[in-house]
Design brief:
single chain; alpha/beta; Alkaline Phosphatase, subunit A; 7-stranded mixed beta sheet; 13 helices; disordered N terminus
Amino acid sequence: MSDKTSRIERRGLAQPRRLSRRTLLRGLGTAVALPWLEAMGPLARAATEGAKKVTPSRLAVVFIPNGAHMADWTPKEEGADFELPPVLQPIAAFKRDMLILTGLTQDGARAHGDGGGDHARSAASFLTGTHPRKTHGADIKAGVSFDQIVAQSIGGRTRLPSLELGCDRGQLAGNCDSGYSCAYSGNIAWRSASTPMAKEINPRLVFERLFASDDAADSAESKAKRQLYRKSVLDFALEDARQLSGQLGGADRHKLDEYLTSIRELEDRIARSAKTAEQGSPELARPDGIPKDYKQHIRLMMDLLVLAFESDQTRVATFMLANEGSNRPYPFIDVHEGHHDLSHHGGSEEKQAKLTKINRFHMEQFAYFLDRMKNAREGEGTLLAHSTVLYGSGISDGNRHNHDDLPVLVVGGGNGTLRPGRHIRYSKNTPLNNLYVSLSGKLGAPVESLGDSNGRLAQLD
């Protein structure tokens, strides 16, 4: 391995236990960013000149399709002493980390004379706060989304300004909902009014993106050699890892070892899932490596998201568990009907019970993500304490297609800017966009207005 490819990019390593946050372990075509280590503390504090925050704030948005069964979502009690209803019970361990926000409305998702298309509008307006143009042609128009507003302000501090993930393929053309383009149903992140941010659904490609060198030629060569010799990205960076480990204290060496082990294990899981997909029956095979198992797919993507945050490769991410209007069945939880079909329950208790099972399944995966975030130590806190995690949908009751009283959670400490552990009920038709205006300032990307916002949302801190 040449000096060029084996060199650790670092500042201040001449003195033991001093390490830049931007340190990379380099190898042929790879660049492995590191988690927060104790050795980074002194330089981080010096860089912020005594500021209180030496850890970055992060934003993650997790989107669910087709609304929620609100009777099993909304707590009866307000304040801190609330009982978790059935849908929220899977995240009981995070009760003191969450804000349940009831009564918020996304007016941009309403018809406003455009007739049908509530699913497309609900996704397109969820973070943009705009009423999308009704078209299934190339002249799509929504607005800059909240996550991209934040990314435009703080994204330049990381290798990836933002990361967009999902489990369903997106389309930029076609009629997906009553005359609305598929671009609306399959995207919640918008860089401009006419440019949605395409999401990645293949775990293997996300992994390559996180650990590939910025040199495209080196990256291609590395990938080819790894496939030929069945090596991990870490195999190319072992020399740098050994050099770095010898300059760290015991706690940092242990954390570095755990971190590198988690990368190798994740890489192995992705490889196994890809192999299983390729060996499936012809009608189910996914030769591009996308897992057939939906739960496995979700968790791989969530692990990659946590890894991207932990290594500070991005501070802004969105994750669509499914495209809006998804009619995916859930036979593995004994729900064989399509999700969208069930959401039009017509008052059927049986269908509503199945909706609750789907909602709980999604919440169980969210609990997995929160657990990973809370167990990732960073400085004097955790990734979850330093993050703002928004979970919700642009539809409330799928049977009525209403866009008021939306299912919305905010989880995490927001780097000390939020006071979680409460259920807050707002007055009818309080704009969801007020939440975004409030959070944007807390994330270091202040805006005065977004969509129909009429102020900041009270009681968050």
